[in-house]
């Protein structure tokens, strides 16, 4: 039986819009959500960083007409114009609004208790998924490993180590997801796109509430409505070792040695698993913010050039309005105090063996603008955010 609109004096759509406004923050600069340890938006030493040119934001705006050149810009500051161009709406997740002591409005308690009528709750969830920037990161979920000398299978070890946030695993479509047909019996007639999708935690992906009215179809999973996504890493996790995940025996033990090998391999996968998303499944994605500091600035680098090339190829044809990548040209790969030029962007040499665009400038390596520009629609923006390695002599020449 279809859900009924609640009886009100105002149209339910208007009330749903009012409730949506109650969980909406003011537009938030995405650079305050991307790589939060860098404080790229609200800089602690803004004047000094600008003077030293130690943080740079390079923007390539693709032309609307492929026969025309695009435009480039570089800023070493983060002024009002740059701030406004990167702002996105940020809404509280209505499925997880917690009690907010001191507010006294009871909104959080109502949502947690399911006291909001079904129609309003459904509209809030759909609005949040469609409008809000969604931020995911990493955390350690490996407390259950225990004694490393006990007998474990490789599959058990795989299930014990997870550096992706549990929320991210439930929310986003990853390459290691798996699908099942609906219903207890499968007759082979159900199209694969209608199968249930499960994550590495063996839980089904977050589902959208059904549309009001019988016979109405729409996206079934939250990830199918997400438009703005920020994917962060936690640099400190780069130093996490297999032995940190459990109790190591005092003497050599064959089971422990085998488990440590499996744990090491699993850690290597999980450190970059946040980048192994099935982008084609996120059909409404418009703006994407990626943290690639694992390629340049962490003490223990965990992303290699093949990983970045693989990411660029997987995003090809995505037609994003905005793609922001942080950390890819940072540290020892920082491009110094000189502003970006069109030659930096469009000047490249194709390497057929490695299937990549190299820079024409000596010592610059891969031309990442050419590698990632196919992910952006005509008129869209490709932005790189980077920091130096602190070598002021190099910066000041």
Helix content: 25-40%
Give the count of structural domains. Answer: 1
Integer-rounded radius of gyration: 24 Å
Overall average pLDDT: 83
Net shape: globular
Count, helices: 12
Order of helical and strand elements:
HEHEEHEHHEHHEEEHEHEHEEHEH
Q: Strands of the largest sheet, in order across it?
A: 3-2-13-10-9-8-5
Number of strands: 13
- Biggest sheet, open or closed, and with what strands and sense? 7 strands, mixed
Instruction: Detail the poorly predicted runs.
Output: 98-113, 392-397
Overall structural class, as computed from helix and strand content, comes to alpha/beta
Which strand-content bin applies to the residues? 15-25%
Q: State the end-to-end CA separation.
A: 73 Å
Topology record:
Elements: H1 12-22, E1 28-29, H2 46-52, E2 55-61, E3 71-75, H3 80-85, E4 87-88, H4 107-112, H5 118-131, E5 133-136, H6 154-160, H7 166-171, E6 178-180, E7 196-198, E8 228-231, H8 254-271, E9 287-291, H9 305-315, E10 320-326, H10 342-346, E11 348-351, E12 356-359, H11 368-372, E13 376-387, H12 392-396
Parallel strand pairs: 5-8, 8-9, 9-10, 10-13
Antiparallel strand pairs: 1-4, 2-3, 2-13, 6-7, 11-12
Helix pairs in contact: 1-5
């Amino acid at each position: 039986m279809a859900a009924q609109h609640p009886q009100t004096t105002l149209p339910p759509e208007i009330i749903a819009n009012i409730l949506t406004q109650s969980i909406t923050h003011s537009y938030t600069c995405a650079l305050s959500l991307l790589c939060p340890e860098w404080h790229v938006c609200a800089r602690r030493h803004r004047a000094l960083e600008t003077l030293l040119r130690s943080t740079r934001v390079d923007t390539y705006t693709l032309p609307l007409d492929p026969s025309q050149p695009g435009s480039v810009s570089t800023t070493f500051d983060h002024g009002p114009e740059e701030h406004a161009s990167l702002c996105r709406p940020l809404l509280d997740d209505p499925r997880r609004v917690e009690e907010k002591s001191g507010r006294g409005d009871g909104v959080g308690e109502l949502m947690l208790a399911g006291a909001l009528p079904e129609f309003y709750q459904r509209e809030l969830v759909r609005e949040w998924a469609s409008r809000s920037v969604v931020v995911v990161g990493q955390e350690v979920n490996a407390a259950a490993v225990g004694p490393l000398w006990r007998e474990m299978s490789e599959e058990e070890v795989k299930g014990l180590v997870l550096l992706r946030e549990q929320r991210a695993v439930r929310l986003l479509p990853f390459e290691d997801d798996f699908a099942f047909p609906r219903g207890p019996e499968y007759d082979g007639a159900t199209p694969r796109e209608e199968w249930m999708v499960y994550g590495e935690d063996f839980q089904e992906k977050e589902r959208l509430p059904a549309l009001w009215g019988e016979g109405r179809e729409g996206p079934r999973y939250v990830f199918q409505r997400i438009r703005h996504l920020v994917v962060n890493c936690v640099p400190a996790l780069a130093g996490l070792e297999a032995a940190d995940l459990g109790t190591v025996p005092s003497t050599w033990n064959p089971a422990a040695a085998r488990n440590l090998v499996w744990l090491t391999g699993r850690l290597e996968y999980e450190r970059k698993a946040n980048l192994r998303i099935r982008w084609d499944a996120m059909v409404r994605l418009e703006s994407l913010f990626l943290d690639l500091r694992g390629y340049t600035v962490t003490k223990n680098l965990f992303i290699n050039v093949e990983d970045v090339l693989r990411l660029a190829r997987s995003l090809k044809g995505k037609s994003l309005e905005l793609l922001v990548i942080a950390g890819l040209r940072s540290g020892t790969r920082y491009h110094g105090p000189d502003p970006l030029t069109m030659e930096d962007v469009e000047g490249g040499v194709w390497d057929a063996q490695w299937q990549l665009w190299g820079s024409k400038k000596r010592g610059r390596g891969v031309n990442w603008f050419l590698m990632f520009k196919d992910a952006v629609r005509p008129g869209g923006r490709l932005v790189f955010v980077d920091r130096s390695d602190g070598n002021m002599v190099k910066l000041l020449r």
